[in-house]
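[job 0412] stage=fold_complex status=start
inputs:
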Amino acid sequence: MALPPYAGPLETTWYYGFRFLCACIFIFLITPILVIIPLSFNVEPYFTFTEGMLAFDPDSYSLRWYRDFVNNTQWRHSVENSFIIAISSTILATFLGTMAALGLSKSHMPYRSLMMGLLISPMIVPLIISAAGMYFFYSNIGLDQTYLGIILAHTALGTPFVVITVTATLVGFDHSLTRASANLGASPTVTFFKVIMPLILPGVISGALFAFVTSFDEVVVVLFLAGFEQRTIPRQMWSGIREQISPTILAVATILVMFSVVLLAALELLRRRNNRLRGIV
Amino acid sequence: MANEIIGGDVVLAADGTPLKASLNKAMRKNRIRALLLVTPLFLFIVFSFLIPIVEMTFRSVDNWQVGTLMPKTTTALAGWDGKALPDEPVFAALIQDLQAGAKAREIGKVGTRLNYEKSGLRGMITRSGKKSLKVKEGPYKEKILKMHKKWKDLETWTVIKRNTAPYTMGYYLNAVDMKYDKSGEIVMRDENRRIYGKLFLRTFAISMAITLICVMLAYPIAYLLATLPLRYSNLLMIFVLLPFWTSLLVRTTAWIVMLQSQGVLNDLFVFFGLVSDDNRLQLIYNLTGTIVAMTHILLPFMVLPLYSVMKTISPSYMCAALSLGANPMVAFIRVYMPQTLSGIVAGSILVFILSIGYYITPALVGGTDGTLISNQIAYHMQKSLNWGLAGALGALLLSSVLALYLIYNKIVGVDNMRFG
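[job 0412] stage=fold_complex status=done
writing structure:
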């Protein structure tokens, strides 16, 4: 879309005007995320840039809020909780979701689209409704304010992503490979682990990543189901924003942004690997 | 089935059974295998997700309180014609129910239920419950009428009689700003007491606005990303994907930092002299805050589908239009844009669905005029404990989301949904 050499003044204006507009939108997207990073090193307990910060005075910057985050038992506990809950629900969701996706992509599956609709419903139903429903149901069976309850709830919310990504991977799957494997004498189990699994692994992993992020970032269900013991990082941030505003939240936010950069890189690598495996490059 | 044996009229498989039966058997086996793979997740979703939601929506019509806690009155009122205050037998039944309810400390639930229909009845029931314990003998009618003046009101009895039914429309009526009037007819509420219908309309209007802004912001950058050489567009894609992958609460916090009155944006305005220091703009904890923050959060959901559609459009169409003499503007509108329509529709429905059910961001940055229907559901779940109304509002929200989703599925197909 380079500007052709014969472009007149109108086209030139339009060309640069359009790029300027796009630049503004990109700035809108990225600025809020970048702004919190320097502010998290603020020495003062404010959410704003102090004059010292703007003058790049080293004394205006400190690791105070990061120390606060590390030394605060509540925050530490919430980090543990977030990982325990996210990892357990990711394992469950990946296992259940991959199995279901394998079943759904078989051509013999009866009521395929209805089934698909039901299985991905947790992704469509507004979170507040899911959370309210689960709140009543889980307290009736005594699972509210337990780790198990939240893990099961997050598993339900995460499975649609696994089902969708794995099904998408299986769309391009060459079924003659399994027949070839069976023909060569492999049992269905061996075929699964030696032939199918390596091919769909990128899809499974990216589905698992989605399930992990869904659980790790989820706060509505946690608000309804969790007791004080099960507070996760987002839950802690929620009360941080509502009750006792302190730049510790910004320190946590910065760490989470770094965490999502790592996730983004992981996904990109997966995508490239997946494309290479399918020969798309 | 390579070694089929021809035996008479019927084609036989290797083991001697007819080929058709053998094939059917194999197909059935395959079908069962497919079902077995799906079953665990299916059961899990049904039990951990669908049943809870059905149960919650059931609460929106459930009306157990009066029928269960005042069984004798319920029976006695069955034959009441509603034209005048009931007679002594009803009052005798009522006193027994009140006494039993007061002893079990359950009568308050009846009061709370009736109070949703007509305010003041909670006080009447609880006070009468307490007083009823002192009543030893009849005539009960006279004594009960003295307990609270509302017992003399015919409307009280109409409300009680209506709520002896095990199911009610009351919560739904409330959710769309209607009510029963004195004679039991369904009418609109007074102008100044209409809350939820307005809130639904506002939720739809705000979501519509957010969707429109998202289309307007997403279209140019999706176009740029789709037409730039891959090495630049991959780099610029980070600007879209990083916000997409960043925690929701982080982004909401970031917008609080940006928009609050001592925040970055206001500081910039003051620095450039656009507003005076003591006259900073109120950009957050109101409608503006909700729209800005939610647009930012939902924008990637619009950019990604648009981008994937634009990526498939061959540039030769535009070249053809230009070489046939269309000016660039006309070519863009008549040739390029129609091809992106499916992407616009897909992204818009997605963003709209997500925004009408949004809770977290409006709750944190919405103040009072920037909150949506979800916030009202959460309020009734956690604070007012009017679960029937929460259920009714939830069911209405859910049905509109499901309707939109069906349209989305028709147009896009959920199998084609892509993330990242």
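[job 0412] summary: Chain A has a mean pLDDT of 88.
[job 0412] exit 0
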